[in-house]
Amino acid sequence: MVVPSARLPAANKLLPCLPFPVVDLSWRRTRAAERLTRAAEDLGFFKVVNHGVAASAAAMATAAASFFALPPGDKLGAGPPSPLGYGVRNIGFNGDMGELEYLLLHSHPAHVAMKANSIPNLNASHFSAVVNEYVKQVRQLAIELLEMLAEGLGLQDTRVFSRMLDDTDNDSLIRFNHYPTPPCLPGSADDDKVGNGTGSVRVGFGEHSDPQLLSILWSNDVDGLQIRLPSTSDEHEVEWLPVPADPTALYVNIGDLLQVMTNGRLISVRHRALANSSRSRMSTVFFAAPSLSTRISPLYEMINKSHWPRRYKSFTWGEFKRAMYTLRLGYNRLDLFLAETDDKEDIDFL
């Protein structure tokens, strides 16, 4: 197995805020499905309004704030991130750092309750109830979005993506992020800054793609999220689009697994979060993932004239996760699973 090399240093070009694709779930379903599918093909990213999760998201945000307001020693009760647990600045196992603290949980209610009960001075029963209700609602939203993507792609089996979340062993996660204002978190350094054309800014969470099927993000009213354009005229120049914050909306990132299953037709968007110097930012991300044993492969219907030949090998989600944990945050982990010459005629049926 060849580990991909690190990305070359690139000039960071910050573009003006531009309108992003917005999908209104009160629209006629075919219109919404067409809009979100086009956005997933062009950017790998879209904004969702009238999503039906607003009340639960507000309660969840309050519960997350109550956790982050606890003394540092109490928050450590959630355990070090291995990978689940409470972390400060350290991201993953390979030296990545960011200006944030976070709590990463498995979405299963029993795991949420176990972690909540391990945190001193947290109202564990209330926290668990609020988080589990939010997970229940946002998971149902993820199922709906995945089915609409399948419809927009014209797939015969419109449950081919969403069925993976019905599995009781699905590996979906939820992560609460807090990007504080200065004074910075313990261990902060000037190295964790990037140029934006007008000066330097603090990196809250560095450039990456999400490995799962898709992720659904809520944030408060503080800006920070940026997405990277899929291609530029100069491969050494990175163009970033800032995403205006909107706590009434949810934002959807297409993940690596959907890029593989659609043979590259949908884009796994690369993104990052910057830390604000004057106001703290909070966000919550639901990562929709299949069970560890689920086999991922390009769908037969997605291997066609415009997306030929087959681009990716077949692998299980567990195999992909193990490879992910060996890599730095910024690596393109899909490079490890590109189809070899002999694989390109070997099409798997799911």
Helix count from the secondary structure assignment: 8
> Portion of residues in helices?
25-40%
As a whole number of angstroms, the C-alpha radius of gyration is 20 Å
Assess the beta-strand content as a share of residues: 15-25%
Distance between the termini: 25 Å
Order of helices and strands: EEHEHHEEHHHEEEEEEEHEEEEH
Mean pLDDT: 89
Q: Biggest β-sheet, characterized?
A: 8 strands, mixed
Give the helix/strand class: alpha+beta
Main-sheet strand order equals: 2-3-12-9-14-6-5-4
Assign an overall shape. globular
Instruction: Extract low-pLDDT stretches.
Output: 1-11
Number of strands: 16
What distinguishing features does this structure have?
disordered N terminus; 6-stranded mixed β-sheet; 8-stranded mixed β-sheet; 16 strands; globular; alpha+beta; 25% strand; 8 helices; 350 residues
Task: Please render the helix and strand layout as text.
Blueprint: E1 11-14, E2 22-24, H1 29-42, E3 45-49, H2 54-68, H3 72-75, E4 85-91, E5 96-106, H4 109-117, H5 124-153, H6 163-166, E6 173-179, E7 193-195, E8 200-208, E9 214-219, E10 225-228, E11 237-242, E12 250-254, H7 256-261, E13 271-275, E14 281-288, E15 295-296, E16 315-316, H8 317-324
Parallel strand pairs: 1-11, 2-3
Antiparallel strand pairs: 3-12, 4-5, 5-6, 6-14, 7-8, 8-13, 9-12, 9-14, 10-11, 10-13, 15-16
Summarize the structure.
The chain has 350 residues and is α+β, with helices and mostly antiparallel strands.
